[in-house]
Prior knowledge:
The complex is a heterodimer. Chain A folds into two domains: 2-92, no CATH class; 120-311, MetI-like (MetI-like fold, Orthogonal Bundle), CATH 1.10.3720. Chain A is built from eleven helices and no strands. Chain A has helices at residues 2-35, 40-88, 95-107, 120-151, 153-166, 175-182, 185-210, 214-223, 227-265, 270-280, 283-311. Chain A starts with a helix and ends in a 6-residue tail after the last helix. The relative contact order of chain A is 0.08. In chain B, a hairpin with a 2-residue loop joins β4 (64-69) and β5. Chain B has a domain at 7-80 and 159-259: Rossmann fold, CATH 3.40.50.300. The mean pLDDT of chain B is 90. Chain B contains eight helices and ten strands. Chain B is an alpha/beta fold. Chain B is globular, with a radius of gyration of 19 Å. Chains A and B meet through α8 and α9 of A and β6 and α2 of B.
Amino acid sequence: MSNAITLPLVASSNVTERENKRSAHEMFVETAKLTSEETSDSRAAREAELANKMRRRRERVSSLVHATVPALVGFALFVLVWQFLAQINNQIPSPAKVWAAAVKLFSDPFYSKGPNDQGIGWNILSSLKRVGMGFGLAALVGIPLGFMIGRFTFLNRMTAPIIAILRPVSPLAWLPIGLLVFKAANPAAIWVIFICSIWPMIINTSVGVQRIPQDYLNVARVLNLSEWKIFTKILFPAVLPYMLTGVKLSIGVAWLVIVAAEMLTGGVGIGFWLWDEWNNLVVEHIIVAIFVIGIVGLLLEQLLTRIAARFEFNEKS
Amino acid sequence: MNHNFHLVVDNVEKRFDTKQGDFLAIRDINLRVNRGEFVALIGHSGCGKSTLLNLLAGLSLPSNGVLVCAGREVKGPGPDRGVVFQNHSLLPWLTCFDNVYLAVERVFGGKEPKAKLKERTEDALKLVGLSHAIHKHPNEISGGMKQRVGIARALAIEPAVLLLDEPFGALDALTRAHLQDELLRIVAETKSTVVMVTHDVDEAVLLSDRIVMMTNGPAATIGEILDVKLARPRDRLALAEDSNYHHYRKAVVEFLYAKHKKAA
């Protein structure tokens, strides 16, 4: 533990020292320029201000260094361990080999040689398309349903046991039903995404509706607002943060599940591609696929976090 | 019948159905309020003063008895009564303007053009001295300012009665004093009829024409009603030296701490 902490600290202090020297030099140059034209009084003020500016800049740089250096060290260690594992087990491709494979794959991501041999870009896009469709349908059904469950106790008590039983089921268990009903792989995969992303949306939306502070509803009551106004001005804005949390959870699960679903259904998609490369025994491509899945998942979640942050309101203070 | 009175509370009783069984909160409440009168409801916590205010607001209905506001029986919440809640209850996703506009639009929406609604909203915020913060969100302004917006929202709909539920209870002493002075000015300007719940003796004496003192619950009722015959406009500093002021203050304190002392 202590090693992991000291390492980045040492590295960062080196960088700040260099930064110090550089800014000291800059300061000297700038003050030299000033001396020629200004009185000593205002010069002292300017110098103080300049020193202040330098100090602030140094603080900014050092906080940036403190943030990024540990991450870089982590990556370096990760690659080092990987390299070590690749050396003792020659079936695992080295980082360099995987990097070279990735560069080659991404140099032409959108080629298409028949349905079973397409560029990695097409594979990613088809997976995203499936997730988007399943997820979008789940939002269309789940969010209104969540609102109704939250608003009407009867509906809540009616649906609670069903949701409680179905929610823990692995989404892949629904795949055969999808194949049976839709008689095709693609809609079955979308169906699985639909099922797995609907629960967080229903549950979070309904919890959001139930947790609307009584004060807000009292405002609606004393003003005698119409149902439409209550919905647009009070219910919807109050529930929005909860809803977006549900959406964020959903997209994470959906992206996890699509890879597994595609392994089973085949077609074009990053999950299928990964499985295909396993059949071809191109291990470096499997590792590329793992990184691609991870990065795309991260980007999806970041995107939704950004969207959610825009709609956060500050209740307290 | 009771046409002379603006607000009538007739033999009102409120029971609650609790887990421990039937709970009688207030009973035998009879009160008449004239137009333009300022009435304070004071009592220890749990005396049912907020229960009574909720009945006036129409947020709950009496188990027995009748409430009449401006000639119409109270059968639910309505825009003829403006309510200011203890904790401002502004919608955090709306600006001060939009919070007030929501109320204005509801009451005058069908009858007046948009420009007029906007003008009403701005006037209400100007009345409480918030013209400069009109487009700020509630989290960007202080607690005292939030409460001013709450008052503006209640007044903007031109209610027959203004109902205040411990409106300054959550504020610090200095801000509270300042807002009390503002409320005196606003009430004088708008000639509003006000019923205010408070547990602050000085606040009650400073602001009210009559102080309704309630006995302790359960089964609380009105113990005494004190007429406060202090000339208006009232000035906090002048009243500090006024022997009448101290006489009224003493009467309320005696009621609360000698006659109806609450076991801590």
